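Record type: ASSEMBLY
Status: queued
Input:
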Amino acid sequence: MKRKKEVTIYDLAKELNYSPSTISRALNNHKSIGKKTIKEIQKVANELGYRPNSVAASLRSNKSKTIGIMVARINSPFMSTLISGVEDAAKKAGYNVIISQSNELYDNEVTNAKALYDSRIGGLIVSLAMETTSTDHFRQFQEKDIPIVFVDRVPKDFNSYRVIIDNYAAGFRATKHLIDQGCTKIAHFAGSQHVNVYNMRKKGYLDALEESNIKIDPELVINLPTMSLEEGTEAMRKLLKIDNSPDGLFSANDAAAVGAILVAKEEGVKIPEELAVIGFNDDPVASIVEPSLSTVSHPARKMGELSIQRILDHSKTSLGSSVSEITMLDTEVIIRNSSLKKTNESIPVKKAIV
Amino acid sequence: MKRKKEVTIYDLAKELNYSPSTISRALNNHKSIGKKTIKEIQKVANELGYRPNSVAASLRSNKSKTIGIMVARINSPFMSTLISGVEDAAKKAGYNVIISQSNELYDNEVTNAKALYDSRIGGLIVSLAMETTSTDHFRQFQEKDIPIVFVDRVPKDFNSYRVIIDNYAAGFRATKHLIDQGCTKIAHFAGSQHVNVYNMRKKGYLDALEESNIKIDPELVINLPTMSLEEGTEAMRKLLKIDNSPDGLFSANDAAAVGAILVAKEEGVKIPEELAVIGFNDDPVASIVEPSLSTVSHPARKMGELSIQRILDHSKTSLGSSVSEITMLDTEVIIRNSSLKKTNESIPVKKAIV
DNA sequence: ACCATTCAAACAATCGATTGCTTTATAGAA
DNA sequence: TTCTATAAAGCAATCGATTGTTTGAATGGT
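Status: finished
Output:
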């Protein structure tokens, strides 16, 4: 199989009797090239099927139209939607997106950072692995003034762009909602506490209780390492066994909340009457599980789009690598049947379906 | 912000008094370089923090360790899992993965193909957009002997690798299952018929009916353009209105099946007694919806891994671009409560939960 | 008619690694 | 000791585009 030879700017140059530099500038609509010349060159380029070699362009200009993205796992509803937003927005700006996943492991994250660095990406979007506490592996990007945007799971101690939601406020409001429904013994499924999102959600939970003068019962706060559905079922079983079992549950994600609901139903605990539940993320399952799960919705797609925006802006302003800018997005408490005790504000069925 | 200068093989050459070619070969463990020399060079490279510039390498060698992937949308459980499999397998082989989504539109697919071509990917994995019927935009890759693997939604008329499931058999077996449960009026939610997966699933459905001498009722076969949950609810409403309303439903995906279940419940139709339902994909919602949804499971992650495998094998064997190899994977009919009428084989609750 | 501007396009170096070919050094054979 | 085979390393071209600096031509003002 012989490969068809590529058409390069040199071929165009020969064909048109212009110099390669003129061709290059014409193709990029450079102002120092005459309008008719540009037209002519672009026309012939199309006819001959010229396609720019962006590898060569990257090498010479030391800029790359590729953005790297590192997340723990791409196949969660939240992350895949965020990445979808990144990709759509990146494409609009003429960028490609390279993905890589750490599977929650620090070592993988370091390896991935190296690989992305080697491919000379023009920007990096990161949501940290659960395990990660050190951020040294991101320094190399900063040293080359490659913008880094941390999104959702962000480090404490690294100067750069951040796109996050107000986890504290969300945790506070979710808990407050349960209190408003009359719950007094509210449990919490908390994730690893060195991860900002789980840490802040828990803080919000604690402060909401305190504000309402509800004593905090350490037995009701359970740390789930991975916040999986399975861990949620297990934790719920534990909660149902203790003397003073809870009448409310704020889970830091939907998966664990669904696990809890399934167990509660299995054990004959009425939801929301005997146990009001609220989750976090508004995963698709939340509106399908029965009773439908109250939750906090995350603007996943928008977070992705804004992350790209930060990277593009960075190149324009060239403020240098020491910028640190936080973009904080609003969340929304979505009330469904799993937490709605007061029948006078009951939700129409349709809303629960769609 | 001054960027730290990169360490290149030239810097190493100067430092170590070797020629750049020796450095290059040493770093790639080329056999024509002495063992001690390799050790020495690699040691110093590490100390000086040398990082290969894969852009430069790609340009020169005209090979790229980057694989492109084009799908309709990355944020579905099936696709995000498949991509996750691709990424994991690619990383193991030292490849990066660029993603791009068509949002089901042909024009976007063409644009994406151009962009990926321009970045000189080393291989391409594609799941077609619903709209796509022409495949001319993939020719450019073939002409340069860049391997293309079509996965799941594949074209009829393009010679290349395919990784698919046996949609016909799956559709047949899913329908057969409903027949075995005693259904005689079985409806089908079908997707766009020029898309192979939906076409074959429907064929399987039709043949299963025929085999059991059940007359096909055209009114019971509904085409859903996007197979969304919403379309599923709509279609179900329609089905409930016709005279001879169905006692079974095979939906070509889970989302539409869930929509149907929600409507059926709303209208007081008992599932599975009055309507047995089976979906396709085994999305997470399938096991959560009530009653839990029978479905056909798709080995998403494995499909991703095998796709990468095909690409790697291609480079090794260099059979040229005219190869056409089909990898067909097994599916599994998963029986849950939405279709299980016979109480003697009822499913334990635990299985439904986890 | 002359010099100063402005505009268009060309020249040539450069980005960092790869690789076919050549040279040099070393060892073994005769 | 001389010659050949082999291993180790160097030379220099190359991949395709970008870009600072020059050159050349055309325009305009006086």
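Annotation: Chain B is about 45% helix and 15% strand.
Annotation: Confidence is low (pLDDT under 50) at residues 344-354 of chain B.
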